[in-house]
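Possible race condition, two jobs.
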Amino acid sequence: MKAIIPVAGAGTRLRPLTYTQPKPLIPVAGKPIISFIIDQLQEIGVKEFVFVIGYLGEKIKNYVESTYPEMHKTFVTQESRLGSAHAIWVAREELRDAEELIIFFGDTIIDVDFDRVMSEPSSCLCVHKVDDPRGFGVVEFDEDGKINRLVEKPRIPRSNLAMVGFYKIKEVNMLMDALEFNISHNIRSAGEFPLTDALMRMIDEGVSFSPISVDNWFNCGKKDVLLETNAILLDREGYASYDLPPYENTIIIHPVSIGENCKISNSILGPHVTIGNNAVIQQSIVKESIIGNYASLQEVNLQKSVIGNDTAITGVRQSLNIGDNTEIDFSLPSE
């Protein structure tokens, strides 16, 4: 079985964090978003992976190659970000021989019955009810309850079921043909080539899709959702760190996830804190936050913050969203 994971987006809604850190590599509950996706797909039997990279793609490629050295993987570059269908289309030569294809967008974490998805005899798309469907691809049904229309970001939605970015395609060649048709005929929605339009073309040609509702959908494109996802996962078994070394004069309020080789002293950490590897935290209070690798915090009081890799912060009491390779000093000048 083959899977394609598009990870070429710029993650603009998480800037400045994503200026130097691709969104799929942001850690949640102790591991990057993309690792949740890869691990889930390997568990259901996916053997071959195709990654569509673009913005900061080398970082994603390096992470995947070092973390999953034995995995069968191919990387394809999307030079121009022209939409989700275009991302899959640029990898078409790697996909045409697949008997069945999984599409999983690289900024999404979902809870779903994967066994049900894989046992479904028809193609599937996963859906979730949302309060405002206008920003998503939306699924509509006919009187018999069958999917008869897919609409990308409708102005006046007729359904509140949004597609969450996970699909199982059995008619792979038909998908490739639909992508080719829309792109060669310049059929766009809002200036791009969304996958929604290609799937709609398949429906028009007689393909049936089964909707599978997901239990939870964590669309980690915004800071608040990222932190909420981090908290929810840390509350679950298997994500938090409990076998921790004795940090000097430090109180840990579980659940937290703390990486390797961290130097922590005179601090209070937690709850719901993820800290990357090689971080240094001194005389600080941190709760409900994500702290990157090699970050340095001294005399800070942080909550609901996302702090990037290689970041130094001294003397601040704020809620922050800080990118990589940043140094901030809020200390008062000495008299």
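Job #2 (started ~2 s after job #1):
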Amino acid sequence: MHVKQLMVKGWKCYRDESRLNLAPIAYSVVASRDGDPEQSNWSGKSSLLEAVRFALHGEHTARTEDGWIARGQPEGGVALVLDHDSDEVVVERSRRRGKSTQLRVKAGGADLKGDEAQRYVDSMLGLTREDFAATCYFEQRQMARLILAKPQERTDVVAAWLRLEPLIRAEEEARALLAELSGQALAFRSTAEREGEAVKRELGQHETREALARAIERRQEDLERAEESLADARRASEAARKVVAARARVDEYDRIVREGKDLVEQLEGMDLAELGKAEQRLTTLERDLALEYGKKQREEQLNRKVALGQFDGVCPVAGIACPAKDEINTRSRASQRALKLAEEAARESLQRHGEAQLDLRAAQAKRQAAERLKARVDALREQVRGMRDDYRLAKQEAAPFDVQAIEALVQRCSDAVVQARVELEAMRGSLKRAAASECERYDCAQKGVAVERRLATAREAVLVFGRNGAQRRVAERAMREIEEGANYALEECGIDLRVEVRWSREGQGVARQCDECGQPFPSSLKVKQCGRCGAERGALLIHKLDLALSDRSGAAEDLAGAALQLAASAWLRAERGSAWGTAIIDEPTAQLDAGNRRAFMRHLAAMLRGRYAFEQALVVSHDPAATSMLPGRILVENREGVASARVLA
């Protein structure tokens, strides 16, 4: 199975659609930027390769899900047409900004979407996402990752390839069970004695649990009596506090009563009803005088107009036209006398109105003062009613109280209750723990026999599933094939470099368990033989994947890493029965000198199709001499940050 067609649109720097029709050959992916073939960095080569992985698994290097959509575009996507068993399978993954990414697969007349489509892709590839990334998609500057990784990291990766997880889990479970059962067997031998001592310790001076139970009953009675005494003391304390508080308010009560009597005496000479009536009479008088003053004022204004010859002919009293308007305006001397009389009448009316206002304000003030006195008397009476019970209590209780003595009694009773509760709880706990210890001592004998039978089974399981058993046989067989494949590739390229793969090695110290029967050894280094089967105690064997190179340099690590990954890819795809046949390789020769680069690239296409069983390859390299050795070529052109791709050969 290989990629028959690759289409990108709105993908990263590929704003417009680029559609590549590909044959089952090895392609070199080259680039030029802004028309300069010597500038190819950041042009879109790696993004074109990444599009294949994105279509298959949805993985990308953008920071956000919308981040891979080309700048300024509302949507984007990648589509692959795969040649699979002479049929075409279309895998398309697309996204609109702010929406979820959509996967769609068309195969054999079926149109699959979402999770169902992803399950079809995974089944068709025959590789997990991690397997694909490790053996078919070789990222830039990652060819040497197996060489540079820590041994345990390599071990974990290869264990996943070898599918050792079931064996590892089986061994771990068997070892965990073995350790657990061994600990139990050792514990059972001492549990009976330990639990017997625990029973004696909990019973203390009591010989039996029955005797301790009777003592608990007696202590419960003591507690009840102490609680009754405490209740009596608290009631006495509460009564004493009330009397003391009531006596403290006697003086205040007397003061309020005296003040109330004084105010009542002041109110005796005040009749609120009569004061209200007087205020109402003065209010009516003030209003009448105000009306009278207004009338006198209008008469004064009329006489002033007449005296000045300006009478407008309207009677100020009747409000109608006066027929003698002209005669009135001409009688000047009489008008002057009338004006003086009107002014005098207005002044007298104003004076009477002012006196009425003063009388009204005085009546209002007298009535308000009387009301305030009455409100104060009512408030004092309410206070007296609220304090009357305390006052009577203070007068009735003539005997003095020793409050401190009563509080001391309360504290002693409270301490006695707390002490009784603590002792009672401790005795109950001892009784409960003694009963549990007796039950545990009885169970030990029953469990010991069953544990010994299970121990024998666990030892056999560790031996069968352990690292020196099935795991080691599976791993060493696979590692030999991968090692042979890698060294064959290096030899075919004429590169003087060898790689050795070691699955296990001797560590510092001695073995922690017997290789023959799985029996754990004591921590002492003096023990040289297995106490169960008599086998010799060997060295500590560490199961980690180590890679040894005949030469060590950055170039050697890249060469060995590339050869190992390609060999592992061939082995893994054969082991999984995977039909996937496209290798995606980004800058495999970056750290190599010109000679090694040419040697590696010269044989790469043949090795991919031969020993490594790849139908097709997409290879990115900045070296024109290296890329010219591959039969196909894809050109990526980038102008002002916008890329497009086309097949040249």
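The chain is about 60% helix and 15% strand.
Logs attached separately.
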